[in-house]
UniProtKB/TrEMBL annotation:
InterPro entries tied to this protein: DNA_brk_join_enz, Integrase-like_cat_sf, Integrase_catalytic
Keywords linked to the UniProt accession: DNA recombination
Domain Tyr recombinase: 9-181
Record has ATP-binding as a keyword: no
Position of the signal peptide: none
PROSITE patterns: TYR_RECOMBINASE
Claim: Secreted is one of the keywords in the record: no
Full protein name: Integrase
Length: 210
């Protein structure tokens, strides 16, 4: 089972294979893949993707106030620009205040962009995915690559560790399980499960009990 399925809150978690399928279907240079590029390297919600544009960029980072809870407990976020995203953005001509625009060159409404993203996923034969699935996929990816709770909170604008711990705890469990399996010994019994040639290749040498 893919570790990307470790957490569920009603939304599936996008896997690398599914993202590759999306990119292959729509093609690099498409508006759909532009959306995906921004989403997988920033983790922003649809409400923030709808307004993100060049005006939010300062040197090598995006600076923006998150749309969610903006009137109650506003969060100002700084997201460094990933080198791959910088290359992708450079290939798309900016014609409005936002990177993502409609076929008429106008910024999307939040609802309009959400609907368009759902349509792009359906076109790629991934109807079970949403933009939140991509956000969860990014959180899972960085946690598996040993990002800390504090790192996730800074990246995603979370105010407490409850959400980040969902991802870091699952990633830590996976790492610990792998380390534990590597310590299985059984004092050479494993060699009895192999042919002499397989044993000679060193498979049974893992966990010899030394």
């Amino acid at each position: 089972m893919s570790p990307f399925r470790a957490h569920s809150d009603g939304h599936d978690t996008a896997t690398p294979a599914e993202l590759e399928q999306f990119i292959t279907h729509h093609g690099i240079g498409s508006k759909a893949v532009l959306y995906l590029s921004v989403a997988i390297y920033t983790g922003l919600r649809v409400s923030d993707l709808a307004v993100l544009g060049p005006q939010h960029r300062r040197a090598d980072a995006f600076h923006l106030r998150l749309f969610k809870n903006r009137n109650r407990t506003p969060v100002d976020l700084i997201v460094p620009l990933h080198p791959i995203l910088e290359i992708v953005l450079a290939t798309h001509k900016v014609t409005a205040l936002t990177y993502l625009v409609t076929e008429f060159g106008k910024p999307f409404s939040v609802k309009g962009l959400g609907n368009r993203i759902s349509y792009w996923f359906r076109q790629a034969h991934l109807p079970h995915l949403t933009s939140h699935s991509v956000r969860k996929g990014l959180a899972t990816d960085v946690a598996q690559n040993e990002a800390t709770d504090s790192m996730l909170e800074a990246m995603f604008g979370w105010r407490d560790a409850k959400t980040s711990k969902i991802y870091t705890r699952n990633a830590e469990r996976a790492r610990l399980a792998r380390q534990t399996v590597a310590k299985i010994s059984w004092y050479g019994i494993g060699s009895k499960l192999l042919t002499p040639d397989e044993a000679d290749e060193g498979v049974a040498g893992c966990g010899s009990g030394d």
